[in-house]
Amino acid sequence: MRRARNDPGEDVLGRLLAASDEHGQPVSDKHICNELLSILAAGHNTTCVGLAWAIYELSRHPQVVAKLREELEHAGAAVNPDVVFTLPFLAAVCNETLRLHTIVPECARIPTQPVEINGRIIPAGHALLVSIVGIHHDSELYPEPDEFKPERFVERSYSVNQFLPFGGGHRRCLGAVLGEYEMRSAVAEMALGWDFAPAKTEREIRHNLAMGPKYGVRLQINRRRQNA
Fold first, then answer.
1. Is 130 helix (H, G, I), strand (E, B) or coil?
2. Residue 166's closest CA among 42, 22, 61?
3. Which helix (H) or strand (E) holds 156?
4. pLDDT tens track for 94-117
5. Cα(first)–Cα(last) distance of the chain, in Å?
6. pLDDT of res. 228
7. Are strands 106-109 and 128-131 parallel, antiparallel or unpaired?
8. What pTM was estimated for this model as a whole?
9. Pseudo-torsion of CA 150, 130, 184, 89, nearest 10°?
10. Distance of alpha carbon 100 from alpha carbon 136, whole angstroms
11. Do residues 163 and 95 make contact, with C-beta atoms less than 8 angstroms apart?
């Protein structure tokens, strides 16, 4: 209907309708449908789950909270929220959260031509499942992979094949940048305004396609006196 009106609109559907492929041709309706289904299936609650895990890990690591607050207060994040996307330790806290608690643990790809992986030929049309959580817990890439250590993202950079919480390739999550901004903004606001402690040890379980906390991340929360 929107194609017929020649008015794609300004929302996500409109942006997809206005997009073109690598050959300059309009994106097919099938591709647009798949993108929208991906958003509905895996993009509706991922940011809030990421936030829950971030606050859970911060509540268990007060030294990380102290370092994060120092960065935020020095940068004036409470006065100018636009600076949150420029702060390296805040980014590291969010990245380490998504590494340790990978929300979408795998992604599927179907090769259009035969591909060789570790000496094995995968025929075209055969589905491949890439374990993102396996990559994120590779001890060669991430020493002590089960530990929450944001500093690892300050000390080195990871390629798009080593850190991929939003998937990879041309099918990387459409909302990745928005999700990152939302997560950093919310983590900064909560770290500056609240003290929190874990009320229960959490564990992950699968919720349909994604992973999430089993117990809902129960915390003891108090407003910080200096912000009262």
1. strand
2. 42
3. none
4. 999 999 999 989 988 899 999 998
5. 52
6. 42
7. antiparallel
8. 0.82
9. 20
10. 7
11. yes
- Both tokens assigned to 59: 């509540």
| Enclosing H/E stretch for 207 | strand 204-207
CA-to-CA distance for 222 and 109, rounded, in angstroms? 45
What digits encode the pLDDT tens for the residues 152-185? Answer: 999 999 999 999 999 887 778 777 888 899 999 9
Domains of the chain, start order: 1-42 (no CATH), 46-227 (1.10.630.10)
The pLDDT score that the predictor gives to residue 123 is: 94
User: For residue range 11-54, what is the model confidence (pLDDT) as tens digits?
Assistant: 878 888 888 877 888 888 888 888 787 777 666 678 889 999 99
SS3 149: coil
Measured in residues, the chain has a length of 228
Within 8 A by CB and 6+ apart from 183, the residues are: 47, 50, 51, 54, 94
Q: 77, 192 in Cβ contact below 8 A?
A: yes
In the beta sheet, which residues pair with residue 221?
196
Which residue, chain included where needed, has tokens 């206005």? 18
Name the 3-class secondary structure at 211.
strand
